[in-house]
Specification:
The protein is α/β, with parallel strands linked by helices. The protein has an eight-stranded parallel barrel with strand order 1-4-5-6-7-10-11-12, surrounded by six helices. The mean pLDDT is 90.
């Protein structure tokens, strides 16, 4: 599945370079209209990132998220500043299909496992963002990518998978927002090691050829952000490519 992404700050569709709020580009002032456009072009699912909520949970754009759900009628997953059980419950109650858990999934594993147990594996996506060192170790980043933990991707994955985890969005931070190409070998390796997990590739997709390669690597889904916003290809072109790969 191809999943268009909208990152939103103060009601605007933006992109950050490698998660840096100081390197922000604004693309549109009406995220609802862009979401409807993606729906009309064939999107079956959307990924929304509430960057205001990520920085300050009191500024979560819940009304905007709810409007996008209501207007598009699409299933939507959303992340950004989910800190506690009530945040998850509020998002699901507002009609969002999945809550995307980032830093908390690394820093409070037991707590997030309890959410997985309570809400079920279809309601939770782990966003595991990684920095890869020269030895190939995949270190998890937290707090909007401003911190790198001393925890490896595999150490966390093993615990969640044992409790029924189904959905993981994995981003190679070095590729995000760069259009430099996705880390195909990463996703090929992860799908081989964890075949029961539904993987969402994110970061750097710049061409239709890459979509073919990711499909060939058995990656389940691909998040498309900057590539669509900058016109590297259209969503209909991408969907045709994915279906025929």
């Amino acid at each position: 599945m191809l999943i268009p992404a909208l990152d939103v700050i103060d009601g605007n569709v933006v992109r950050l370079l490698k998660g840096d709020f100081n390197q922000q580009t604004t693309y549109h002032s009406n995220p609802v209209a862009i979401a409807v456009k993606y729906r009309d072009e064939g999107a079956e699912f959307l990924h929304l990132v509430d960057l205001d909520g990520a920085r300050d949970t009191s500024k979560r754009q819940l009304s905007l998220l709810t409007e996008i759900v209501t207007t598009t009628g699409l299933p939507i997953q959303t992340g950004g500043g989910i800190r506690n059980r009530q945040d998850v419950a509020d998002l699901l109650a507002a009609g969002l299909q999945r809550a995307v858990i980032g830093s908390k999934a690394v820093t409070a594993v037991d707590e997030v496992l309890s959410w997985l147990d309570e809400f079920g594996p279809e309601a939770i996506v782990l966003a595991l963002d990684i920095n890869i060192d020269e030895q190939g170790n995949r270190w998890l980043a937290t707090h909007g990518w401003q911190s790198t933990s001393e925890v490896r991707l595999e150490d966390v994955l093993d615990r969640y998978q044992a409790r029924g985890l189904k959905h993981v969005l994995c981003t190679d931070i070095s590729r995000d927002g760069t259009l430099a190409g996705s880390n195909v070998e990463l996703y090929r390796d992860l799908k081989r090691a964890y075949p029961s997990i539904i993987w969402q590739a994110s970061g750097g997709v710049a061409s239709l050829a890459e979509l073919e390669t990711l499909k060939g690597a058995n990656c389940d889904s691909v998040i498309l952000g900057k590539s669509l916003l900058t016109g590297q290809f259209t969503l209909p072109e991408a969907l045709t490519c994915w279906q025929n790969a």
